[in-house]
């Protein structure tokens, strides 16, 4: 469960080591981030998009529509059952087929966008927000705070993520909200480590030193210089984490602890379809495709954003 | 020396906190440990039997007293006796840990190999290779274990009959579980490694190596690969915890004995000593892995050796 | 010999013949049984904590235990009691003592002779709190002591008459174990109980498998068995494979020979293949059913319960989800348990009636989502679902119940829970409706499930009467039925009791709890022992 952020943390800790290794590289890390700060601007960003990126943007817009106005794309009721029409293969009338209760898979995939993205985005957001508090506190709060927070994060990391999720869910009962919180908690330590290292790198960078020399107030430096620059790369990495959060919520479903039925949530659909993978492949294929494409689209855009900011 | 002491203190703190969190976490959720001892939830154990068990295991003491008692035992290295299996926790873990470690280690190696191979190949082969490699990584990373396992069994066991569907004594039973754990991990590792391989290809040290007239193969092998593997090494510590989580699902599906499956059962049965014991072992494993990866990073990254 | 004993034995003989006629359920007998070989069985019921079924007492223990332990009595396909290790059971006129006569030619696999002293030792071990029995001790609730009259006669002294005594003694949870084995203490006995069965526990690798080897001195085959004497198989490897898809894949790839707990679509696939066959049997006890918690709102109002029952359209779902492998039941009792009574008319689908009943009950408002309300409160029905007990197809059926009852304004909220949490929710009465399994080889299961005294929780918090049924008339019917041994009277009492449950809409029966065993056609001679529908391997041989 901790992997999505571990990946990110791993990447970042390599950078961190770069930063500690050579002062010149530390400066580069600062510049990496300040690439955004210098403001290539939204227009410049979109101007540099390739075909893949444009497809990704298009798909994300489609997701946005599906999440906000699902009935526009699929006017049917995602919960309407029709047992007589169960296990229908994709075809006319049911482009993605029907599930074990005769519900339309296409309608469910479309209506499942919102809850799935909510899980993905809010789990990641919870992780980031917690990480922001811990990470900046660790980086700027002096040795004692740093030591305490770092050990605390290590404890969370040492915990098997799934166990953490199991405990949260058995205390508060299964459901989308608890799954989200569980996944968010499990991912927080990873993000916190990145923020800590980025904040440190930024805090020791030339322009912050300049601001200190210029006698700017501590709060002002934190708000104007450190935070925005420490958070920017994290924002990029979030796009990689969203898809992962959805997948982990699906794993919770496998253990019987995910979204409550009959919610049309992609992970839960994947789980329900797993039992019929030999006879009704479409029950897992389409929600699975939705997860993969969402993850792919956010990753492609996240990469583009990262490349931009590195330049 | 000071570094070592701090490190050790930190490790002890991590172990203590993990045990404490688990103990209170498990005791706060619904479910009665006395029932776990008496044949699982829903048992219709008699009042006498329950009272006897509560007294025997100290479950009639205040929660904090129970906590101190258990902590005291842990300090002396006694992990206690499992409620549901009625065997010493050390014995349970001892008999299960081998399978899980083997599974996790193999999965890590396979994931590494796939990720590194993919990263090297796709950064060399131009735009199309880059696109394909990237797509493979994204798909692999976005596939849940339980689904991947089902599909692998369907293809390689039911249809092709190449590998058994459930664990066997021989190595052939390991193939599908290892692949199930390794493929998503390879997706993650690949995504990260590609970035650093790309970085390394543009880095001054690569340029200077080329300028010195080293062949492309040598450059890639000596410099790019080394740099590209850095985040992967740093990641392996965390991957350990993640593999344990993944093992819960994989061991259940492939009916492999192991820590993951035991952990899930223990949580569901509210088997406090067993869960605490396993969390301690996993935490210890994590601490060891972190130290090991730090050491490995020092070997792979010359800058770290200097500092 | 009393009249009752005679009829009992007559029935036994008749049913033994009957069973012998239909026992070879596996494939055509192509050749004579061949001795030797190993059979691998994969169970989805889970791994026992202890192999002695006297401790605790659940299905996983009974399944594996039947291979090495045997009971005093057995049952035929109609649920009638037949002899096994005992030859007869005769009650006294007041029903307070039972004389159980025993076979004199049986020994446990450690050489200890099976006799009345062994019976006494077993009953006392089950009743000892240190054994921590839950199923066995409950079944012996009315047994005060066992007296050794002579080596082949054990006299049971009861506190009150118990018409279900012999049925209780037929369960594997009260099977006979060697007194020498029991004397080793619970821990050793958990590892390898010693019985009289066709196999002996050889080794148990936790979380992996149990290995059973043939008992060369076996001579106590149950009624209906195809042959007497030692089993054909050398070894049974008993594996634990929790994932149903993996279990079926393992059968398909030939890694295992027999599996249980099959998913409905796998049953169909195996049935249509010429490499595999399926053996099904309805587990005795209660059918799979929804219990409406009549103790608390909203189901404390009979009209609301009836509205639910008349709007929960399950027949189409049972058809499609179970692919014709399950049949709708209108009885609280399983079809394999005697005295079941069906009342289909009480369970018709009638949305107009349901709407009318809800209007009458005061649930007249409707909120923005279409759910009914009363005094601003929504008509919520919490439905905790045990993910351990309810198979996926069943959970899908619950979703369909949720969808069809929504049409008349119920807001059924499904909560999938792990076993401990699920029991907690039930224990605190924190639910509107739930589905709980209860396996027992006697109609006396009705008393356990619906007698008001079982609303009071056991010390562990468990209560069997989940529907919170508390009707004095029903209580006295069930108590009387539990004490009488007259068949006609029992039938009448149990029918009246079931009519009360049906009239009051306390229960919505769905279908029988099916034992679904899939096996390779290389496996011959497999049958289910009717008592608990457990596979019997004493007659099984594997084609080489």
Topology:
The complex is a heterotrimer of chains A (311), B (307) and C (544).
Chain A: H1 3-21, H2 23-37, H3 41-47, H4 51-68, H5 70-73, H6 105-111, H7 113-140, H8 142-158, H9 161-172, H10 176-203, H11 206-213, H12 218-254, H13 266-274, H14 282-310
Helix pairs in contact in A: 1-2, 1-10, 2-12, 4-7, 4-14, 7-8, 7-10, 7-12, 8-10, 9-10, 10-12, 11-12, 12-13, 12-14, 13-14
Chain B: H1 2-28, H2 33-37, H3 47-56, H4 63-75, H5 89-124, H6 126-141, H7 145-159, H8 175-202, H9 204-211, H10 216-253, H11 259-269, H12 272-300, H13 302-306
Helix pairs in contact in B: 1-12, 5-6, 5-8, 5-10, 5-12, 6-8, 7-8, 7-10, 8-10, 9-10, 10-11, 10-12, 11-12
Chain C: H1 3-22, E1 38-43, H2 59-65, E2 73-75, E3 81-83, E4 86-91, E5 97-102, H3 116-127, H4 135-139, E6 143-150, E7 153-158, H5 165-170, H6 179-182, H7 186-191, E8 199-205, E9 209-214, E10 235-240, H8 244-252, E11 258-259, H9 264-272, E12 276-282, E13 288-292, H10 302-311, H11 315-321, H12 351-360, E14 365-366, E15 372-374, E16 377-378, E17 380-386, H13 392-406, E18 411-417, H14 419-427, E19 433-434, H15 445-450, H16 472-483, H17 487-503, E20 507-511, E21 514-520, E22 523-524, E23 527-529, E24 534-536, E25 541-542
Parallel strand pairs in C: 1-10, 1-11, 17-18
Antiparallel strand pairs in C: 2-3, 4-5, 5-7, 6-7, 8-9, 9-10, 11-21, 12-21, 13-19, 13-20, 14-15, 15-16, 22-25, 23-24
Helix pairs in contact in C: 10-12, 16-17
Describe, in plain words, how this protein is organized in 3D.
The complex is a heterotrimer of chains A (311), B (307) and C (544). With 311 residues, chain A is mainly alpha-helical. Chain A has 14 helices and no strands. The longest helix of chain A has 37 residues, at 218-254. The relative contact order of chain A is 0.17. Chain B has 307 residues and is mainly alpha-helical. Chain B has 2 domains: 2-75, no CATH class; 90-306, MetI-like (MetI-like fold, Orthogonal Bundle), CATH 1.10.3720. Chain B is 79% helix and 0% strand. Chain B has 13 helices and no strands. Chain B has helices at 2-28, 33-37, 47-56, 63-75, 89-124, 126-141, 145-159, 175-202, 204-211, 216-253, 259-269, 272-300, 302-306. In chain B, helix 5 packs antiparallel against helix 10 (216-253). The model of chain B has no long low-confidence stretch (mean pLDDT 77). The radius of gyration of chain C is 24 Å and the shape is globular. Chain C is α+β, with helices and mostly antiparallel strands. In chain C, helix 10 runs antiparallel to helix 12. Chain C has 2 domains: 38-257 and 522-542, Periplasmic binding protein-like II (D-Maltodextrin-Binding Protein, domain 2, 3-Layer(aba) Sandwich); 284-513, Dipeptide-binding Protein, Domain 3 (Dipeptide-binding Protein, domain 3). Helix content of chain C is 30%, strand content 21%. The interface between A and B is large, with 55 and 65 residues. Chain A: Residues 113-302 form the ABC transmembrane type-1 domain.
